[in-house]
Predict the structure.
Amino acid sequence: MASAPRWEHRTAKGTYVGDVDGQPRALGALARLWEQLTSYRDTLAVFASSKFRAAHRAQMLGLLWPIAYPTVLMIVMSVVFGVVFRTDLEAYPVLLMLGLVPWHFLSHAWTSGMHSLLVHSEIIKRTAVPPWVIITGTVLADLYNLGFSALSVLPLIAFYPEAFKVSPALLLLPLVVVCLIAFGLGLALASAVLNVIFRDTGYIVDSVLIALFWATPIIYPLSRVPGLGHALMHLNPMATIVESVRVIVMQGETPSGWLMLSVFGGCFGTLLLGALVYRLFAPVVSDHV
């Protein structure tokens, strides 16, 4: 039996759905989230894939850019910190690349997600697609870039085979990637709605990214951070993500329980905070784009 036609009405106090001939019923927060996830899953998938294709259309290198970008950074930093400053770290290019690949995803997903509502303002004005679909689709589009960026690690296996350990711990990498996506999505959700209302949000995010880069053990291992600084590093989700990837790939070991707890707590805590900020400002987004 075919279901009755449905309608949806969004207000600042909640979302109401119902049959055409029936009375409206208010949806709770979790019910509304599930309703929207099931209703817009196809829209989300199409938007993410089309966003990725559009980003690499009419380019000289095309899909090679996600591979070339971290590779060039790795070569430059390896020369600067491995030759000029004479670091004593073994397989330093591998250590660098395992930090640069997740960092490239986060920085690009955060900035592109932040600008997504302004870039696609016509969708907000002319359709009933919720703003979170555009933000999430933009972040997921960068997941394709993350996959291609990860390919830049493969050539290093030929030069530093001893730096890679094949072990069952590699099965934890997808979980770390999920945490990375959650972290980037939380930052994008909050900054996207704030950027619509406060147009200088981009300057703040750019400044935070510079500070976060140096506060994340990308060009140095976490073990080199002494004392209190080492403990404070666990409050930085990107630091724990990078360290977890290095422990899994370079040591072939399962990250410690405290490290994994820091990863999950920091990333999903950021996602929850970003969702709360989004929920607070989302009702007025269409008035400012």
